[in-house]
Amino acid sequence: MKPITQLKHTSLILKITALIVGATAVAFCLAWLMLKGGMSGWISLPLVLALFLVVGFLFSRKLIAPLTQMRDAAEAMAQGDYDVRVRTSSHDEIGQLATSFNVMAGELEHADQMRRDLIANVSHELRTPVAALQALVENMADGVVEPTPANLEGILGQTHRLSDLIAFLLDLSRMEAGAASLEITTFDFREFIEDTLEPLEIADAGHDHTITIKVPRGISIEADQDRLRQLFTNIISNAMKHSADGTEVLIEGHQDAAKATIVANVINFGSQISPEDRSDIFRRYVKGVGKPGTSSGGTGLGLSIARWAAGLHGGTVNVVDDTRGTNFQIELPKYHIATQDSPASDDDPENDFA
Question: Does the reported pTM lie above 0.70?
Fold first, then answer.
């Protein structure tokens, strides 16, 4: 959908005032001419009032036409039709309301489509490991296959897939609820990156990505390691997923003493994200394009979870210009600033899964 341009508006109050003043002036002139022409006041007054009512009705009907459209559109949206839009050339407050209504309708249409996609994605993601687990367990129960280490490893791998999907859904629940449970500790940033990479390098077996770390040792940071691991796991996994096999993923980091921040960059060489798409990729359920000719797969939640985790710490995640490839820049405060959302909360959705 193309963005709706915000135009300079004419105040609705001015229009109504002009209607009243204009109609009053016209009525006065007509009444004066009729009386001057010798017409009885009992005849001229009803005629003037009738003309006043007709003109006022026609003008008011045109004035509130967008409101009628919005009423009809809202009723259609209540029935699940999010494709409706209000058309108006008015630039007053009603025109502004129509513009805001169209923006809201567009967001609701996008959210509804993403919800449908999420249900389809989650159903597919759940069905695959569950079917594999069922087949393996049934075969073992029937004695068709033996519980060998290889078969048990296959079962373990499918349970890991289920666990990852549940973690994604739990993170989404936290985002929706605005819950934040932070356990702040001080740790070495370089060691944290190395620990985060271990399971990712194991999962990358067969793709032969080279991960280069250029982060000085001795840089400490105050943060929640679990939430920060969500951030870097999603960003680094995204970089590996969108890199051709056998290519390099670079992780750079440094301390900005002037701002008291830690700046990290995760770069995958070759691919680029156009400037107009850089904000959309952080929206929930939006999936990017993977290697040429393929889909990125997944739930479309990774980058939105990464930005959420950074925001919990007062940090940011953005795509910055880099001729080498896609560069995700993560900026985090070196020292934690306590907020109302920082302490563990009883409203954390994770408690619902206990």
Answer: no
